[in-house]
Specification:
- The structure holds two protein chains of two kinds.
- By secondary structure, chain A is mainly beta.
- Chain A has a single domain, classed as Jelly Rolls.
- Chain A is 6% helix and 48% strand.
- The radius of gyration of chain A is 16 Å and the shape is globular.
- In chain A, strands 3, 4, 5, 6, 7, 8, 9, 10, 11 and 12 form a ten-stranded mixed sheet that branches.
- The longest helix of chain A is centred in the first third of the chain and has 6 residues.
- By secondary structure, chain B is of the alpha+beta class.
- In chain B, strands 13, 14, 16, 17, 18, 19 and 20 form a seven-stranded antiparallel sheet that branches. A six-stranded mixed sheet of chain B has the order 1-10-9-8-7-15.
- In chain B, helix 1 crosses helix 3.
- The longest helix of chain B has 15 residues.
- Chain B is globular and about 70 Å long.
- The chains are: A mainly beta, B alpha+beta.
- At the A-B interface, strand 1, strand 2, helix 1, strand 3 and strand 6 of A face strand 11, strand 12, helix 5, strand 13 and strand 16 of B.
Protein backbone atom coordinates (compact mmCIF):
# COMPACT_ATOMS: atom_id res chain seq x y z
CA UNK A 1 0.00 0.00 0.00
CA UNK A 2 1.57 3.27 -1.14
CA UNK A 3 2.19 6.05 1.36
CA UNK A 4 0.83 9.28 -0.10
CA UNK A 5 2.80 12.46 0.43
CA UNK A 6 2.05 15.78 -1.22
CA UNK A 7 4.28 17.99 -3.33
CA UNK A 8 4.18 21.30 -5.12
CA UNK A 9 3.50 19.45 -8.37
CA UNK A 10 0.86 17.14 -7.00
CA UNK A 11 -1.32 17.51 -3.97
CA UNK A 12 -4.96 16.87 -3.19
CA UNK A 13 -6.75 19.05 -0.73
CA UNK A 14 -9.43 17.96 1.72
CA UNK A 15 -11.71 20.43 3.44
CA UNK A 16 -14.29 21.25 6.07
CA UNK A 17 -17.83 19.98 5.62
CA UNK A 18 -19.77 22.12 8.06
CA UNK A 19 -22.93 20.72 9.62
CA UNK A 20 -23.47 23.25 12.36
CA UNK A 21 -20.23 25.23 12.44
CA UNK A 22 -18.34 28.10 10.84
CA UNK A 23 -15.70 26.59 8.50
CA UNK A 24 -13.43 29.57 9.18
CA UNK A 25 -12.96 28.40 12.77
CA UNK A 26 -10.93 25.43 11.48
CA UNK A 27 -8.50 27.79 9.65
CA UNK A 28 -8.12 25.11 6.99
CA UNK A 29 -5.33 25.40 4.40
CA UNK A 30 -2.75 23.29 2.57
CA UNK A 31 0.98 23.96 2.78
CA UNK A 32 1.60 23.00 -0.87
CA UNK A 33 -1.13 25.30 -2.12
CA UNK A 34 0.18 28.11 0.10
CA UNK A 35 3.75 27.64 -1.13
CA UNK A 36 2.61 27.43 -4.75
CA UNK A 37 1.41 31.03 -4.43
CA UNK A 38 4.20 32.38 -2.23
CA UNK A 39 7.36 34.27 -3.02
CA UNK A 40 10.57 32.39 -2.23
CA UNK A 41 11.12 32.21 1.55
CA UNK A 42 8.01 34.22 2.35
CA UNK A 43 7.17 32.99 5.87
CA UNK A 44 3.42 32.46 5.64
CA UNK A 45 1.67 31.50 8.88
CA UNK A 46 -0.52 28.44 8.36
CA UNK A 47 -1.13 27.77 12.05
CA UNK A 48 -1.07 30.02 15.08
CA UNK A 49 -1.48 29.15 18.75
CA UNK A 50 -1.33 32.42 20.71
CA UNK A 51 2.24 33.60 20.00
CA UNK A 52 3.51 30.42 18.37
CA UNK A 53 3.22 29.76 14.65
CA UNK A 54 3.88 27.17 12.01
CA UNK A 55 5.00 28.82 8.79
CA UNK A 56 4.96 27.42 5.25
CA UNK A 57 7.90 28.51 3.11
CA UNK A 58 8.50 28.12 -0.58
CA UNK A 59 12.17 27.09 -0.79
CA UNK A 60 13.68 28.33 -4.04
CA UNK A 61 17.17 29.72 -4.62
CA UNK A 62 19.13 31.24 -1.74
CA UNK A 63 17.22 32.73 1.16
CA UNK A 64 18.23 35.83 3.09
CA UNK A 65 20.18 35.12 6.27
CA UNK A 66 17.94 34.73 9.30
CA UNK A 67 18.49 34.28 13.02
CA UNK A 68 16.34 33.93 16.12
CA UNK A 69 16.81 34.32 19.86
CA UNK A 70 15.22 30.91 20.39
CA UNK A 71 15.38 27.49 18.77
CA UNK A 72 13.39 26.93 15.60
CA UNK A 73 12.75 23.75 13.62
CA UNK A 74 12.39 23.22 9.88
CA UNK A 75 10.67 20.21 8.29
CA UNK A 76 11.02 19.69 4.54
CA UNK A 77 7.68 18.75 3.00
CA UNK A 78 8.90 18.73 -0.61
CA UNK A 79 12.25 19.16 -2.36
CA UNK A 80 15.81 19.37 -1.06
CA UNK A 81 17.41 22.17 0.92
CA UNK A 82 20.86 23.02 2.20
CA UNK A 83 20.96 24.78 5.54
CA UNK A 84 24.14 26.79 6.22
CA UNK A 85 24.86 27.90 9.77
CA UNK A 86 27.09 30.63 11.21
CA UNK A 87 27.78 31.48 14.83
CA UNK A 88 27.83 35.31 14.69
CA UNK A 89 30.66 37.17 16.41
CA UNK A 90 28.04 39.53 17.83
CA UNK A 91 24.45 38.51 18.66
CA UNK A 92 22.48 38.83 15.44
CA UNK A 93 19.20 39.29 17.29
CA UNK A 94 18.63 41.33 20.46
CA UNK A 95 17.80 39.20 23.49
CA UNK A 96 14.10 38.62 23.94
CA UNK A 97 13.07 39.33 20.37
CA UNK A 98 10.70 36.60 19.18
CA UNK A 99 10.41 35.04 15.75
CA UNK A 100 12.87 34.84 12.88
CA UNK A 101 14.75 38.04 12.10
CA UNK A 102 15.98 38.75 8.59
CA UNK A 103 19.60 39.91 8.60
CA UNK A 104 20.91 42.55 6.24
CA UNK A 105 23.72 40.31 5.03
CA UNK A 106 25.75 37.24 5.91
CA UNK A 107 26.99 37.93 9.44
CA UNK A 108 30.64 37.79 10.45
CA UNK A 109 31.38 34.80 12.59
CA UNK A 110 32.44 31.17 12.73
CA UNK A 111 31.07 28.76 10.17
CA UNK A 112 29.20 26.07 12.10
CA UNK A 113 28.70 23.81 9.13
CA UNK A 114 25.87 22.88 6.83
CA UNK A 115 23.37 20.12 6.20
CA UNK A 116 21.44 18.80 3.27
CA UNK A 117 17.87 17.78 4.05
CA UNK A 118 14.97 16.63 1.94
CA UNK A 119 11.37 15.52 2.30
CA UNK A 120 10.65 14.18 5.76
CA UNK A 121 13.81 15.53 7.34
CA UNK A 122 13.65 17.88 10.32
CA UNK A 123 16.51 20.28 11.13
CA UNK A 124 17.31 22.24 14.26
CA UNK A 125 17.93 25.96 13.77
CA UNK A 126 19.68 26.61 17.07
CA UNK A 127 19.09 29.71 19.17
CA UNK A 128 21.51 32.47 18.23
CA UNK A 129 22.79 30.86 15.03
CA UNK A 130 22.41 32.64 11.70
CA UNK A 131 21.13 30.43 8.90
CA UNK A 132 20.57 30.48 5.18
CA UNK A 133 18.53 28.05 3.07
CA UNK A 134 19.70 27.12 -0.42
CA UNK A 135 17.47 25.19 -2.78
CA UNK A 136 18.21 24.43 -6.43
CA UNK A 137 14.57 23.71 -7.25
CA UNK A 138 11.26 24.86 -5.73
CA UNK A 139 10.24 23.02 -2.61
CA UNK A 140 8.20 23.44 0.57
CA UNK A 141 9.26 23.71 4.19
CA UNK A 142 7.29 23.91 7.43
CA UNK A 143 8.85 25.94 10.24
CA UNK A 144 8.15 25.78 13.96
CA UNK A 145 8.82 29.21 15.40
CA UNK A 146 7.32 32.19 17.20
CA UNK A 147 5.36 34.89 15.43
CA UNK A 148 7.69 37.73 14.55
CA UNK A 149 8.36 40.58 12.17
CA UNK A 150 8.96 38.23 9.23
CA UNK A 151 5.73 36.28 9.73
CA UNK A 152 3.25 36.92 6.91
CA UNK A 153 -0.43 36.59 7.77
CA UNK A 154 -2.90 36.27 4.92
CA UNK A 155 -5.47 33.95 6.42
CA UNK A 156 -8.36 35.05 4.22
CA UNK A 157 -6.31 34.27 1.12
CA UNK A 158 -5.14 30.81 2.17
CA UNK A 159 -8.00 29.40 4.24
CA UNK A 160 -11.36 27.87 3.47
CA UNK A 161 -13.97 30.52 4.19
CA UNK A 162 -17.28 28.80 3.39
CA UNK B 1 -24.64 16.64 39.71
CA UNK B 2 -22.81 14.72 42.42
CA UNK B 3 -19.26 15.70 43.16
CA UNK B 4 -16.89 14.41 45.80
CA UNK B 5 -13.18 14.92 46.29
CA UNK B 6 -11.58 11.75 47.51
CA UNK B 7 -8.19 10.35 48.17
CA UNK B 8 -7.19 6.93 46.89
CA UNK B 9 -9.66 4.18 47.82
CA UNK B 10 -8.75 1.43 45.39
CA UNK B 11 -9.50 -2.16 46.32
CA UNK B 12 -9.89 -5.36 44.34
CA UNK B 13 -11.47 -8.84 44.29
CA UNK B 14 -11.34 -11.52 41.58
CA UNK B 15 -14.54 -12.55 39.74
CA UNK B 16 -15.47 -15.88 38.13
CA UNK B 17 -13.92 -14.90 34.77
CA UNK B 18 -10.62 -14.38 36.56
CA UNK B 19 -10.58 -10.58 36.46
CA UNK B 20 -10.12 -8.27 39.41
CA UNK B 21 -12.84 -5.79 40.30
CA UNK B 22 -11.63 -2.30 41.15
CA UNK B 23 -13.16 0.44 43.25
CA UNK B 24 -12.29 4.09 43.64
CA UNK B 25 -14.63 6.53 45.31
CA UNK B 26 -18.17 5.49 44.43
CA UNK B 27 -17.09 3.96 41.11
CA UNK B 28 -16.66 0.21 40.64
CA UNK B 29 -15.04 -1.31 37.54
CA UNK B 30 -15.85 -4.90 36.56
CA UNK B 31 -15.09 -6.85 33.41
CA UNK B 32 -16.45 -10.04 31.95
CA UNK B 33 -15.48 -11.80 28.73
CA UNK B 34 -16.78 -9.05 26.43
CA UNK B 35 -17.53 -5.90 28.38
CA UNK B 36 -16.32 -3.36 30.93
CA UNK B 37 -18.97 -2.45 33.48
CA UNK B 38 -18.71 0.94 35.18
CA UNK B 39 -20.91 1.04 38.25
CA UNK B 40 -21.74 4.30 39.96
CA UNK B 41 -24.41 5.22 42.53
CA UNK B 42 -27.76 4.05 41.25
CA UNK B 43 -26.71 2.90 37.78
CA UNK B 44 -24.10 1.30 35.53
CA UNK B 45 -22.52 2.02 32.16
CA UNK B 46 -21.25 -0.69 29.83
CA UNK B 47 -18.57 -0.56 27.12
CA UNK B 48 -17.08 -3.18 24.78
CA UNK B 49 -13.88 -4.29 26.53
CA UNK B 50 -11.66 -3.66 23.52
CA UNK B 51 -12.87 -0.05 23.17
CA UNK B 52 -12.55 0.49 26.91
CA UNK B 53 -8.97 -0.81 27.08
CA UNK B 54 -7.88 1.19 24.02
CA UNK B 55 -9.27 4.38 25.55
CA UNK B 56 -7.86 3.59 29.00
CA UNK B 57 -4.42 3.01 27.47
CA UNK B 58 -4.37 6.51 25.95
CA UNK B 59 -5.75 8.18 29.08
CA UNK B 60 -2.96 6.64 31.17
CA UNK B 61 -0.18 7.12 28.65
CA UNK B 62 -1.01 10.78 28.19
CA UNK B 63 -1.36 11.52 31.92
CA UNK B 64 -5.08 12.30 31.31
CA UNK B 65 -3.98 14.43 28.33
CA UNK B 66 -5.19 17.96 27.64
CA UNK B 67 -8.80 18.57 28.68
CA UNK B 68 -11.45 15.90 28.19
CA UNK B 69 -10.91 12.26 27.27
CA UNK B 70 -14.32 10.85 26.34
CA UNK B 71 -14.12 7.05 26.29
CA UNK B 72 -17.47 7.14 24.48
CA UNK B 73 -20.52 9.44 24.50
CA UNK B 74 -21.07 8.85 28.23
CA UNK B 75 -17.95 8.04 30.27
CA UNK B 76 -14.65 9.87 30.53
CA UNK B 77 -12.18 12.05 32.41
CA UNK B 78 -11.37 15.74 32.54
CA UNK B 79 -7.83 16.76 33.42
CA UNK B 80 -7.37 19.61 35.89
CA UNK B 81 -3.61 19.00 36.11
CA UNK B 82 -3.27 17.65 39.63
CA UNK B 83 -6.83 16.46 39.99
CA UNK B 84 -9.06 14.63 37.53
CA UNK B 85 -12.82 14.52 37.22
CA UNK B 86 -14.21 11.12 36.30
CA UNK B 87 -17.75 11.29 35.02
CA UNK B 88 -20.74 9.54 33.58
CA UNK B 89 -22.98 11.64 31.32
CA UNK B 90 -21.34 14.98 32.05
CA UNK B 91 -20.79 15.70 28.35
CA UNK B 92 -24.02 14.11 27.18
CA UNK B 93 -26.95 16.36 26.44
CA UNK B 94 -29.65 13.85 27.43
CA UNK B 95 -27.96 12.85 30.70
CA UNK B 96 -27.54 16.52 31.63
CA UNK B 97 -31.09 17.48 30.70
CA UNK B 98 -32.40 14.69 32.93
CA UNK B 99 -29.89 15.24 35.75
CA UNK B 100 -28.45 11.77 35.26
CA UNK B 101 -24.80 12.81 35.23
CA UNK B 102 -22.41 11.69 37.95
CA UNK B 103 -18.97 13.15 38.68
CA UNK B 104 -16.25 12.55 41.21
CA UNK B 105 -12.91 14.32 41.54
CA UNK B 106 -9.73 12.41 42.33
CA UNK B 107 -6.10 13.17 42.84
CA UNK B 108 -4.48 12.43 39.48
CA UNK B 109 -1.92 10.10 41.01
CA UNK B 110 -4.62 8.07 42.75
CA UNK B 111 -6.78 7.59 39.69
CA UNK B 112 -3.71 6.85 37.58
CA UNK B 113 -2.74 4.08 39.97
CA UNK B 114 -6.17 2.47 39.74
CA UNK B 115 -6.36 2.86 35.96
CA UNK B 116 -2.91 1.29 35.58
CA UNK B 117 -3.97 -1.64 37.74
CA UNK B 118 -7.14 -2.15 35.69
CA UNK B 119 -5.19 -2.05 32.44
CA UNK B 120 -2.56 -4.47 33.71
CA UNK B 121 -5.10 -6.99 34.98
CA UNK B 122 -7.69 -6.76 32.21
CA UNK B 123 -5.30 -6.86 29.22
CA UNK B 124 -4.86 -10.46 28.15
CA UNK B 125 -1.80 -12.01 26.58
CA UNK B 126 -1.67 -11.18 22.87
CA UNK B 127 -3.74 -8.00 23.02
CA UNK B 128 -1.97 -4.65 22.66
CA UNK B 129 -4.36 -1.73 23.20
CA UNK B 130 -1.90 0.64 21.49
CA UNK B 131 -1.72 -1.41 18.28
CA UNK B 132 -3.87 -1.21 15.17
CA UNK B 133 -6.56 -3.92 15.13
CA UNK B 134 -4.82 -5.81 12.31
CA UNK B 135 -1.60 -5.94 14.32
CA UNK B 136 -2.87 -7.40 17.56
CA UNK B 137 -4.86 -10.25 19.05
CA UNK B 138 -8.26 -10.12 20.71
CA UNK B 139 -9.16 -8.58 24.05
CA UNK B 140 -12.02 -11.01 24.74
CA UNK B 141 -12.45 -14.14 26.81
CA UNK B 142 -11.67 -15.33 30.29
CA UNK B 143 -8.47 -14.03 31.79
CA UNK B 144 -5.46 -15.55 30.10
CA UNK B 145 -2.03 -14.12 30.79
CA UNK B 146 -1.09 -10.48 30.51
CA UNK B 147 0.80 -8.04 28.27
CA UNK B 148 2.64 -5.79 30.70
CA UNK B 149 5.32 -4.93 28.15
CA UNK B 150 2.69 -3.38 25.90
CA UNK B 151 0.66 -1.55 28.51
CA UNK B 152 3.63 -0.16 30.43
CA UNK B 153 5.31 1.63 27.53
CA UNK B 154 6.78 4.98 28.52
CA UNK B 155 5.53 8.11 26.80
CA UNK B 156 8.16 9.53 24.45
CA UNK B 157 8.97 13.21 24.79
CA UNK B 158 11.97 15.10 23.48
CA UNK B 159 13.33 17.87 25.68
CA UNK B 160 14.64 19.87 22.72
CA UNK B 161 14.72 17.76 19.55
CA UNK B 162 14.69 14.03 18.92
CA UNK B 163 18.12 12.62 18.09
CA UNK B 164 20.19 15.24 19.91
CA UNK B 165 22.82 13.88 22.29
CA UNK B 166 21.15 13.11 25.62
CA UNK B 167 17.67 13.64 24.21
CA UNK B 168 14.96 11.29 22.93
CA UNK B 169 16.53 8.54 20.82
CA UNK B 170 15.65 7.85 17.20
CA UNK B 171 13.79 4.57 16.64
CA UNK B 172 15.95 1.80 15.21
CA UNK B 173 15.81 -1.81 14.05
CA UNK B 174 18.28 -2.68 16.82
CA UNK B 175 15.83 -1.43 19.43
CA UNK B 176 13.17 -3.78 18.09
CA UNK B 177 11.32 -1.15 16.06
CA UNK B 178 11.10 -2.27 12.42
CA UNK B 179 9.48 -0.16 9.72
CA UNK B 180 5.73 -0.66 9.94
CA UNK B 181 4.10 -2.84 7.29
CA UNK B 182 2.20 0.16 5.91
CA UNK B 183 5.27 2.42 5.68
CA UNK B 184 7.64 0.07 3.87
CA UNK B 185 8.00 2.63 1.06
CA UNK B 186 9.10 5.47 3.39
CA UNK B 187 12.80 6.31 2.72
CA UNK B 188 15.09 5.51 5.65
CA UNK B 189 18.05 7.67 4.58
CA UNK B 190 19.68 10.16 6.94
CA UNK B 191 20.24 13.88 6.44
CA UNK B 192 23.73 14.88 5.31
CA UNK B 193 25.42 16.65 8.22
CA UNK B 194 28.66 18.60 7.71
CA UNK B 195 29.48 20.21 11.05
CA UNK B 196 32.69 22.15 11.51
CA UNK B 197 34.86 20.93 14.38
CA UNK B 198 33.28 21.92 17.68
CA UNK B 199 29.77 22.19 16.30
CA UNK B 200 28.94 18.49 16.02
CA UNK B 201 26.03 18.65 18.45
CA UNK B 202 24.53 21.80 16.97
CA UNK B 203 24.35 21.02 13.27
CA UNK B 204 21.52 18.60 13.74
CA UNK B 205 18.81 17.06 11.59
CA UNK B 206 16.93 13.76 11.57
CA UNK B 207 14.70 11.83 9.21
CA UNK B 208 11.41 12.51 10.98
CA UNK B 209 9.30 10.47 8.54
CA UNK B 210 11.62 7.48 9.06
CA UNK B 211 11.23 7.95 12.83
CA UNK B 212 7.46 7.90 12.43
CA UNK B 213 7.51 4.92 10.09
CA UNK B 214 8.98 2.84 12.94
CA UNK B 215 6.31 3.72 15.49
CA UNK B 216 4.80 0.56 16.98
CA UNK B 217 1.77 2.39 18.37
CA UNK B 218 -1.19 4.28 16.95
CA UNK B 219 -2.92 7.46 18.06
CA UNK B 220 -0.15 8.30 20.52
CA UNK B 221 1.44 11.73 19.98
CA UNK B 222 5.07 11.98 21.08
CA UNK B 223 7.03 15.21 21.38
CA UNK B 224 9.88 15.52 18.85
CA UNK B 225 10.65 19.25 18.89
CA UNK B 226 10.22 21.96 21.50
CA UNK B 227 10.24 25.76 21.16
CA UNK B 228 9.31 27.03 24.62
CA UNK B 229 5.64 25.88 24.99
CA UNK B 230 5.28 24.96 21.32
CA UNK B 231 5.37 21.16 21.06
CA UNK B 232 5.51 19.21 17.81
CA UNK B 233 3.85 15.89 18.63
CA UNK B 234 3.64 13.74 15.51
CA UNK B 235 1.93 10.38 15.61
CA UNK B 236 0.94 7.54 13.33
CA UNK B 237 -2.74 6.81 12.93
CA UNK B 238 -4.62 3.74 11.77
CA UNK B 239 -8.25 2.70 12.22
CA UNK B 240 -10.17 4.85 14.76
CA UNK B 241 -8.97 7.23 17.46
CA UNK B 242 -9.99 5.23 20.55
CA UNK B 243 -11.19 8.30 22.44
CA UNK B 244 -13.20 11.38 21.56
CA UNK B 245 -10.92 14.23 22.54
CA UNK B 246 -12.29 17.52 23.82
CA UNK B 247 -9.32 19.80 24.29
CA UNK B 248 -9.19 22.63 26.83
CA UNK B 249 -7.25 24.75 24.33
CA UNK B 250 -6.82 25.01 20.57
CA UNK B 251 -4.69 22.32 18.98
CA UNK B 252 -3.62 21.97 15.37
CA UNK B 253 -3.20 19.13 12.91
CA UNK B 254 -0.90 18.98 9.91
CA UNK B 255 -1.42 15.88 7.77
CA UNK B 256 2.03 14.63 6.78
CA UNK B 257 0.84 11.64 4.74
CA UNK B 258 -2.28 9.87 3.54
CA UNK B 259 -5.71 10.83 4.82
CA UNK B 260 -7.79 11.13 7.98
CA UNK B 261 -11.45 12.01 8.32
CA UNK B 262 -12.39 13.80 11.52
CA UNK B 263 -15.85 13.81 13.03
CA UNK B 264 -16.28 16.99 15.02
CA UNK B 265 -19.00 17.43 17.62
CA UNK B 266 -19.89 20.15 20.07
CA UNK B 267 -17.66 19.67 23.12
CA UNK B 268 -20.42 19.88 25.72
CA UNK B 269 -23.51 18.45 24.04
CA UNK B 270 -21.99 16.05 21.54
CA UNK B 271 -24.14 17.43 18.74
CA UNK B 272 -22.53 17.02 15.28
CA UNK B 273 -20.68 20.16 14.15
CA UNK B 274 -18.70 19.20 11.05
CA UNK B 275 -16.50 16.72 9.25
CA UNK B 276 -12.93 17.64 8.35
CA UNK B 277 -11.18 15.69 5.61
CA UNK B 278 -7.40 16.03 5.81
CA UNK B 279 -5.05 14.97 3.02
CA UNK B 280 -1.28 15.25 2.81
CA UNK B 281 -0.24 18.86 3.39
CA UNK B 282 -3.56 19.97 4.86
CA UNK B 283 -3.56 22.09 8.01
CA UNK B 284 -6.53 22.50 10.36
CA UNK B 285 -7.21 23.89 13.80
CA UNK B 286 -9.27 21.98 16.32
CA UNK B 287 -11.07 24.75 18.24
CA UNK B 288 -11.33 24.67 22.02
CA UNK B 289 -15.13 24.19 22.01
CA UNK B 290 -15.31 20.90 20.09
CA UNK B 291 -14.56 17.21 20.53
CA UNK B 292 -13.06 15.18 17.73
CA UNK B 293 -12.56 11.58 16.63
CA UNK B 294 -10.39 10.56 13.67
CA UNK B 295 -10.71 7.74 11.13
CA UNK B 296 -7.59 6.70 9.23
CA UNK B 297 -8.20 3.97 6.61
CA UNK B 298 -4.48 3.52 5.97
CA UNK B 299 -1.74 4.11 8.54
CA UNK B 300 -0.96 7.80 8.18
CA UNK B 301 1.43 10.36 9.64
CA UNK B 302 -0.16 13.25 11.49
CA UNK B 303 1.55 16.19 13.16
CA UNK B 304 -0.32 17.21 16.31
CA UNK B 305 0.80 20.65 17.41
CA UNK B 306 0.13 21.70 21.00
CA UNK B 307 0.66 24.84 23.08
CA UNK B 308 1.70 23.63 26.54
CA UNK B 309 1.06 26.99 28.26
CA UNK B 310 -0.62 26.03 31.54
CA UNK B 311 -2.70 29.23 31.67
CA UNK B 312 -4.67 28.39 28.54
CA UNK B 313 -7.45 26.20 30.05
CA UNK B 314 -8.47 28.95 32.46
CA UNK B 315 -8.20 31.67 29.79
CA UNK B 316 -10.46 29.68 27.50
CA UNK B 317 -12.87 28.74 30.28
CA UNK B 318 -13.18 32.37 31.39
CA UNK B 319 -13.91 33.58 27.88
CA UNK B 320 -10.73 35.65 27.70
CA UNK B 321 -9.69 33.62 24.68
CA UNK B 322 -12.00 32.75 21.83
CA UNK B 323 -12.33 29.02 21.09
CA UNK B 324 -10.89 29.43 17.61
CA UNK B 325 -7.31 30.59 17.05
CA UNK B 326 -7.46 33.19 14.29
CA UNK B 327 -9.92 35.87 13.26
CA UNK B 328 -10.14 36.68 9.58
Amino acid sequence: METVFGSLKHYEKGGVQAINANPKHYVFSNVFEVASKSKPYEKVAVAQNIKYVLEALRTEGNSPWFAADHDEAAIVMDGEVEVHLIQPDQPAVPAGVEGSVKLAAEPKGKKMGWMKIHRGHMALLPKGAAYQFRSAAPGVMLMQTIKGGCTVEKWADICQTA
Amino acid sequence: MSTATLTSTASSVVNQEGYQTFKIGQFTFERDEYFAHILYPGNRHIMPIEAFLRALMRDIAWGFFYGTVNFDAVFGTINHYGTVEMYVGLNNEAYRANHQEYVETFQSKDLKKVFEAILADWTNEGFDPFAAPEETGLAYGRKHGSNLKAVQRQRLAAKRMVGLPGDLKMRTEEDGLPVNRQFLDVPQDKPELHPEPGFEGQVHAVNLFAYLSRSDVTWNPSVVSVVHDSLLCPTTEEHILPIIHGNDRVEWFVQFSDEIMWEIDDKTTGRPASKVIMKAGDVAAMPADIRHRGYSPKRSMLLVWENNDGTLPQRHASGELKPYPVEF
